[in-house]
Each structure stands twice: as C-alpha cells, then as structure tokens.
Amino acid sequence: MNPADRGGATRAIPDARVAGLGRQRAGRTAWIQAVRRRHVVGWLFVLPALLFYAVFVLQPLALTIEYSFYRWDGVGPATWVGLTNYAAVLSEPKLVETLFNGFRLVIFFSLIPVGLGLVTASVIQRVARGRLGTLSRTVLFLPQVIPLVAAGIIWGRLLSLPGLVNQVLASVGLGDITRAWLGDFDTALPAVGIIGIWVLLGFCTVLLLTGMTKIDGALFESARLDGAGWWPEFRAITVPSLRNEVAVCLTVTIIAALAAFDIVYVSTGGGPGNATAVPGIQIYILAFLERQVGLASALAVVLVILVLLVILPLQRLSRGDA
Amino acid sequence: MRVGRGELIAGRTLLIALMAITILPFVSLLTTALHPSGSAPAGISWPADPQWGNFVEAFKVANMTTLLASSVWIVLAVVPISLLISTMAGFAIGLLRIPGARWLLLLFVFGLTLPFEGIITPLYFLARQIGILNTRLAIVLPLIGLFMPFAVFWMRAHFANLPGEITEAARVDGANTWDLFWRIHVPLARAPMASLGILMAIWAWNQFLLALVLVEDPTQRTMAGALGAFQGHYATDIPLLCAGTILILLPTLVVFVLFQRQVIAALLQGSVKG
Fold first, then answer.
1. Is CATH 3.90.1170.20 correct for B63-272?
2. ipTM for the complex?
C-alpha cells in the first residue's frame, strides 16, 4: 500500500461515515468479542484443574516457604527466625547427613537401574525378540505396580536375619557375611537401595526398550553385517541413540530417589541411628514427631530446590542433543 | 539378524536370572504367608501343611471389607473428578490454545518435579483448618490437586497432537466450545483417558504418605496406608502380615495384568511425550 492510497482512504471516510464503516466496525467488534468469549470459555475449562492445583499444591508450597522462616511447634505462636532454619539444615550434621543419604540413594534408585536397564533392554532386543522378550518385560515391570509399602514389607523380610538373602548366601558358602542387612549401620542404606533397584529396573528397561524400537533398524543391520558384537553395538549405536530416553529415565528415578519415603519408612524408619534417614523421612519426623514445623519446612524447601537443580540441566541436555 | 550362539545363551541366561530375582520375593512372600500363624519361617520353604486359612484370618483381622470399601470410595472420588477436569484443561491448553497456554503448561509441568514431602506439612494444617483432617476427603482433595500436573500434561499431549481439521469442521457446523468438547473430543479421547484413569486408580490405591499424615484411622485410608498400619500392629505375626500384604497388593497386580498395555503405555508415554 502506498501513501497516496492511504490518503485516499482517509479522504473517503467522511463519505462512508454513515452506514458502511459503522457496519464494518460492528462486524469486527463482534468477531473480536466472539474470540474473546471463546478465550473466556477456554479459561473456564482450565479453571477447575487450576483451582485444585492452586489450592492443594501451590498454596501449600507457598506455606512451606513461609513456615520455613519461623520457629513453630504447630500449636502455639510462631516466632520469626529469618534464615536460622536454613542455616541449621545446611550445618547440623544430622540434617546434612540426611541430604547426603538422599544423594547416595540416587546411585541405587537411578544410576544402577538406568545402567542395568540399558543392558537388559539391549539384550532383549538382540536375543529375545519373541515370547521371552514379552514375558521378561511384563515380569520385570511387576514391582512397579505394587504399593511401595508392600515392596518395603516384602524386602524387610528378605533382608532380615532369617530371610531369603542370608539363606542364599549361606547356601553358597558365604555364611560369614550374613547379617540383618537393614539393621547394620554399614549396609542399611545399600540394602534400602537394593529395594529401589528391584522396583525401578523394570520401569527403566521397558522405557528404554520403547526408545530402541524407534532406532533405525538399518543401523543395527549394518553393524551386525560388519560382525559387530554386543559391546561395540551397545556403545556405538544403542546408548547414543537413547539419549532422550536415558534423560527421562534419570529424571524420573532421581526424583524417586531424592523424594524416597514409603520404602524407607516401612523397611527401616530411617534407622539404624541416622543411617537411612533421607530428606522425606526427616521432614516427616521433624514436622509430625518432633513438632519442629519451621525446620521441617526449611528442609522441604531445600529438597524441592535440590530436585530442581538436578533435574533442570538434564532436560537441557536431552533437548539440546536430540 | 544373526547373533552368535554364545551370546544367545549368555543373554537369555541373564534375562532368566533377572526374572527370577524379580519373582523370588513374591514367591517368598507366598510361602511365608502359608506357614502357621505366629511362627517365624526362614527364607523360602514350602510349609508341610500350607495354611490357606491365613488369608481368611488376615481378611478378618485387617477388617478387609471396610478397608476395601474405603479404598474404593477414595478411588471412585479421585479418578472421575481428576479425569474430567484434567481432560477439560488439556483440551483448553492443547487444542483451544487459550492465551497464556504456554505458561499454564509450564506451571503444571513444574508440579511434576515436586516431591509430595515438599507440601505435606502445610497440607496437614490446611486440612485441620478446613475441618477435613481424619476424613477421606483429606486424601481425596489433595490427591486430585497432586494428580493434576501429570494428568493435564498427559491429556494436553493428546489434544496437541490431534489434526486441526476435526475441530474446524465442527466449528463450521456451528458447534460451540461446550458441544465441541463433549460431542466430539471426549469420545475421541477415550483411549488416553482410559490409560490415565487406570494409572491414577493404581496410584490412589498405593498412596501412602497422604494417608499416613492426614488420616489416623486405618479404616478411612487407602490400601497402602492401611497396610502401613497393619504392619505396625502385626509386625510380630509374620505369616499373617505376609498374607495381608498379598491381599492388598493382589488387586494392583490383577489390574496390571488385565490392562498391561494401557498401564505401560501411559506410564512411558506420559514421561516421554510433550
């Protein structure tokens, strides 16, 4: 459109002022109103979900942050203490150890299941594409659907002094190392970790297996024509192609590790001593048994931040490389 | 594709070993549950005289009828409401693309990373304040809120991947948003809604932390919450505890075996999509 035309248009306005333009304008406002109404209706569709989320998740989250600046027993008046609770979380040996325990669980709940899951998925893909593969997928997934509390109870038995684990160890001549695995200061945390591996291996395997079906089959064909064995294929094709799925697996399992509660509560309750006290357990103990609501909340905020700090870079990585 | 004989044997051995390790705990649970009540059986051993009556006994002492009713009540309250409102939200965010849809999605996705422990303390005081502490509502209402991140995320992925023609055709026919949702998109979304519903039912059944903190009476709890209490009371009677554990996890196993495809698909796609 050139300036002359525009001039013409403006000049034409007085002539058309009565009917034409008015109708046009009304048409446009009606259209804008319709879109607006549609947007309002759209927001009404989101509203119930948003309301539940805001009232029962976001509001409590904000309250957790608020509580964390107070000393409060949950009943009497609360005293503003600034960052004292955070200082305690990051300096009191008992609480710092809690955070470390959370990260040690990551090895068992996340790194081992993902690593072992990669191996298992690639083995299924290479040697068990038929019924055995389907069966192992189903079986390995079973622990994922039962209540974690049940997993804790089952393994609490297995790892006890007269449990199956010690029975097997004794039968292969390792009777010397048998013990109450969950009651021993040195082995309690890894023992809890083993329960996590049992629960999460199937999830990782199946997720990675789904990712493998998307890899171009020609890649495997050519590798095998070249006589590549399992290990070169695993290293050169499988693992690099599954970067996205690995990131997802790590994300889900790391959250499961840092936020672990059910399994630990049922199998050890955080003991012996402080050996398996993870953040979730400590928050529960502080808030509901020791009535230190402020301190519990500060630990909760630190936990939320730690999860985000670990999870966010993972998302970048997977998206950037995909 | 050809794989060497040695590798074939090694690979299959590994798979069978992993399956055995996965199954053995269940077997041990069963054999322990069949020992005489009050005894302390060691490891795996088939009892000389299997006490199938332990299941009946556990059913009675755990007050299983009441527990089942309580859990079913919770599931039936949580799942339909969650399904409905998350489908509506997913529809608005993924298909209507209302202004602010991106931010809304981000807000919900943030909730995916949030540990329940991060909000459990205020939830307790909140429930006390509105007078629902120690009732099933104290589990139901927060659980609906806590399911929203995954549920909205999951339903949005479905709606965002639909071809636009369906919606346009309906709009041309003069359908308003409400009709569009109920007449066209809900029927089309039945598959993802079914998967999501099954998944949320299992999660509600298995929910422990909310039940532990917000409801003192085990008969008002979820199954997993009740199991926690049952463990406290019967820690000494191990066969009975194991029988009770089997009764409580059995429904989840049955649902999983029946709806395996949907459950696995929902769990996996939910974490990959988007």
1. no
2. 0.89
